[in-house]
Each structure stands twice: as C-alpha cells, then as structure tokens.
Amino acid sequence: MSVIGIVCEFNPFHKGHKHLIDSVKQQGDIVVCVMSGNYVQRGEPAILPKDIRVEMALKNGADIVLELPFVYATSSAEIFARNAVKILDSFGCDKIAFGTETADVEGILKAVDILLDKGIDNKISKYLNDGLSYPVARQKAFEEYNYKFDISAPNNILAIEYVKAIKQTNSKMIPIAVKRVGAGYNDIVAVDEFASATYIRSLINNKEDYSKYIPQNLREMYEDAIKNGRNLSYEKFNLIALTLLREKIGSEIKNIANMSEGLENRIESLLKVCTNINDLYDDVKTKRYTHSRVRRAVLSLMFGVTNDDITIPAPYCRMLGFNTIVSNEIGRLADNCKLPFIVNHSDFSKFDNPEIKRILELENKSTDIYNLMLNSFDVCSREMTYSPKKI
Asked: How far is the CA of 223 from the CAs of 201, 204, 216, 266, in angstroms?
C-alpha cells in the first residue's frame, strides 16, 4: 500500500483531475490531496469555496484532503511547491503524483539538476538585465546547458518545483509523472471531453454548458452551488479588490510579498486611475512582470502578506476532508505527522507558536473577505466553524 500525495487546486474539479487520481491509485492505495483553499496560485479567488471543492475531490477518488494555506497557495511556483511538498512529506506520503506536458520523470530529474547548478543564477541575471521576464530568462539560461526540455510549460514548471523541493529537503517521496490529457493548462477550447479549468470557469461565468467536462456524479453539486450563489462573483471581487487596494495608496508597500524591482511603484501609480482590476493587471504587466506575478503581488498587497510571511515554512498540517473508509489509516498518519495536526479550528489553540498564529491570521482574514465575493454573501468566521468534510 502506498500513500500518494497530489498537489492541487481543483479550480474547479474536472475530468482531467479524475484522470490523474485514477491513473495513480491502485487497490489499497491512499490518495492524499493537499489543496489550495479559497485562493489559487494564479493570484485570484477560487471559483468555488474550498468546502465544495473538497467534497468533489472526495467523491472522485481522493481519500484525504489537506489544506495548502493561503500564504503559500498564492505564492510563486517555488514557494507553492516547497510548502505543499513539506505538508505531504510530513503527513507520511511515500509518493507524489503530478500532471505534466510529458510523462518524462527522468527528463524532469535532469532539468532539476541543471536548475540547481550554482552557475545558473548568474546566467538568469544576465537575461533579466536584458529586460526579459523571469520565466523567459530562466528558459534561456537553461538552454545554455544544451539539454532539450521545456521548463516553461505550465505543468512542467510545477513538476520541476516539486522534484526540486524533494531533493532540497532530502524527502524520500518518489515522483510519478502523469501525462496531461486533452486541452492544455490555459486552453480555451476542449479536446474530446477534457477541458482546462480556465475554459470551464469561462463557461460557468458566461452561463454556458460545461457539464460534459466534469464527472457525471458532480453535475448536481455544480448546479446547486451556482443556484445557491456559492460561486465567485467577478463583479464583487473587482469592487472589493479595488477598495482594499486604494486603502494602501501612500503606505509603505516595498516589503509586500512578490513586490520588488519597482513593481510597487507601477502598481501604486496605476491604482489611482484604474477602475477595473483586470485593467490594473494589464497596465502593470510588462515584459519583465508576467500577468501571474502581477496578480500575486496585487493579492499580497490586498491582504498585507509580507516577504517575512512567505519565508515561514508551512507550520501545520490541516485536514479539510476525508473518506471514512480510511479512518483507521488517518489515525496512524496523524499520530506520525511531523507537523502539528489540525482537525478542528479549536486545535490551533493548543499551539503557542507565532508562526502558526500569523499563517492562521491571514487564512481567517482572506476567507472572511472571500465570503463577500460570492454571488450570495456569506458570514464572517467560517474558518472557526469549519469541520472536515466526510463521505
């Protein structure tokens, strides 16, 4: 029996996600998903709240869902992956599975060796000084090693960071690469019955039919969530984001996470004239600053996430949901967990740890604001009353 970890967002859950779980899960294996909460790595709120996405995962092969806290879920690929790997490793996973543009684990391992070479940083800096964005600069520096591998493809980026984190922390987790099927990560077309989460979100927002791209057993859940207004309102997100951001005009924002190299000056200047959050992203973006980098910086500014915050290693392991079939195994894994194991919010009070308190503070704050971004407003303090989903 293996305990297989998967890092995920399920934003929202679709047939490609089920394919990944089904591809790696054998009889008796336990699949542990560490999932982003109410915000995701592209620097935006999730289209559905985490409790709904947890239940969807549990109904489609996941056995246990843990949380990747807000601070890490909305950070760079490196910080996102490093802390997700830390949580899975601490919980006792012996394997980690991920989708990639290729299923070439050996290629990923070789790419990681190159990226860990001490000389590559100087090569990257050279291209950054030429005005290139970090992803492009890194790809060009990588190509100087005469090894052909696309390190800038969306899924490969995270796969590389997972393997890099495993090597840097001496984790014994074995990487498993599963080739992505159907549409690409950001494609706005479908291939057969497989569509990207980006495309499915656009269909939901435009009130178009998305049903054939999601597992059949989730169609009623999707319909109920949207009918009850538990999906993200981009209009509300726009208003709330601009409100929080305008409060920051004139304040010291240099120490905000993901903010450097003059990016803070561009954001502050454009905040005074932009009346739409997407316009802000578009206007701030340059060759140097990618769209994702800008969105993450803006989100960090909204909630006051600092550079010190993102350097805190994941300080706890929090359960979001589980399948009762594995209840006995959960007890064993929890007892051997290398991090404080949190089931209910009251468990946090057992730990007088400033790092736990700070990560939890930001989780609580971001969730309270997220609940105002839904089509149907939700109340404050949902984190304090959250109980793990069971199926």
From this structure: 14, 10, 12, 41
Tell me the pLDDT tens digit for each residue of 111-140.
999 999 999 999 999 998 888 888 889 999
Q: What CATH number has the domain spanning 3-117+149-232+313-352+386-390?
A: 3.40.50.620
Confidence of residue 265 (pLDDT cuts 50, 70, 90): confident
Helix extents (H) in the chain: 15-24, 50-58, 70-73, 77-90, 105-115, 120-129, 134-143, 154-168, 197-205, 219-227, 234-246, 263-271, 277-284, 291-303, 307-310, 327-336, 354-370, 382-385
Beta bridge partners of 36: 68
Cα(228)–Cα(208) distance, integer angstroms: 17
So where are the chain's domains?
Answer: 3-117+149-232+313-352+386-390
pLDDT tens column, 196-211: 999 999 999 999 999 9
Residue 185 predicted with pLDDT over 60: no
Q: What is the rounded CA–CA span in Å between residue 141 and residue 151? A: 11
Name the one residue in this structure whose structure tokens are 């987790």.
173
